[in-house]
């Protein structure tokens, strides 16, 4: 019975117009974030939610969850300024992280000297599968923390990209070996 209900819900979401997806997704997203009892700011007009959370012990991040052109977008600024002479090393680390991520990407804005991490996903996918919104928020948060720590080591602690990448690889291998 439960699988029939789930199947029927999916058929309904697939059959309705994209404008209705936006409305339903927004309702699911805001209800989910309210239920977590986080301190959130909701902008109904521009369809985004902002919340703060720690990227590390010393860095508070502003996380944005929004609807953008039919997509669910999660974003956070990792680094608000970096020295341009580190651009080559930042590019190496960014490329590695982007090759590792399956859904998100690190964006380096050389003009504003900032580094952002974004995760984008189709709204419909998030409506079709129970828990998908929550999973994307979790995935964005955990990837943001890993990315921030990596860039912090590069920019503020003078680690080389190779050492940081090796540490990340070891961390991911340990995770996969113990959890899969």
Describe this structure in words.
With 180 residues, this protein is an alpha+beta fold. It contains 6 helices and 6 strands. It has helices spanning 2-15, 18-35, 87-100, 123-128, 132-155, 161-179; strands spanning 40-43, 48-56, 59-68, 71-79, 104-109, 114-122. Strand 5 (104-109) and strand 6 form a beta hairpin. The mean pLDDT is 94.
What are the main properties of this structure?
6-stranded antiparallel sheet, 26% strand, 180 residues, 6 strands, single chain, alpha+beta
Describe the global form: globular
**Mean pLDDT across every amino acid position:** 94
Spatial strand order of the main sheet: 1-2-3-4-6-5
The secondary-structure class comes to alpha+beta
Question: What's the β-strand tally?
Answer: 6
Determine the oligomeric state from the structure: single chain
Distance between the termini: 30 Å
Order of helices and strands: HHEEEEHEEHHH
Beta content: 25-35%
Q: From the alpha-carbon coordinates, what is the Rg to the nearest angstrom?
A: 18 Å
Question: How many helices?
Answer: 6
Helix % is 40-55%
The main sheet comes to: 6 strands, antiparallel
Low-pLDDT regions = none
Show the helix and strand layout.
Blueprint: H1 2-15, H2 18-35, E1 40-43, E2 48-56, E3 59-68, E4 71-79, H3 87-100, E5 104-109, E6 114-122, H4 123-128, H5 132-155, H6 161-179
Antiparallel strand pairs: 1-2, 2-3, 3-4, 4-6, 5-6
Helix pairs in contact: 3-5, 3-6, 5-6
Give a brief description.
This protein has 180 residues and is an alpha+beta fold. The chain is 53% helix and 26% strand. The protein is built from 6 helices and 6 strands, in the order ααββββαββααα.
């Amino acid at each position: 019975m439960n699988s029939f209900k789930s199947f029927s819900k999916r058929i309904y979401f697939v059959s309705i117009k994209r404008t209705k997806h936006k409305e339903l997704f927004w309702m699911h997203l805001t209800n989910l974030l309210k239920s977590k009892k986080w301190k959130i700011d909701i902008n109904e007009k521009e369809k985004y939610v902002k919340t703060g959370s720690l990227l590390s012990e010393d860095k508070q991040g502003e996380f944005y969850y929004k609807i953008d052109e039919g997509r669910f977008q999660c974003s956070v600024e990792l680094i608000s300024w970096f020295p341009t002479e580190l651009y080559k090393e930042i590019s190496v680390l960014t490329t590695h992280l982007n090759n590792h991520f399956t859904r998100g990407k690190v964006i380096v804005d050389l003009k504003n000297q900032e580094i952002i991490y974004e995760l984008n996903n189709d709204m419909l996918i998030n409506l079709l599968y129970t828990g998908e919104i929550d999973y994307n928020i979790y995935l964005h948060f955990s990837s943001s923390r890993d990315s921030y720590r990596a860039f912090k080591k590069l920019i503020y602690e003078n680690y080389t990209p190779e050492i940081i990448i090796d540490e990340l690889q070891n961390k991911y291998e340990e995770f996969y070996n113990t959890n899969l």
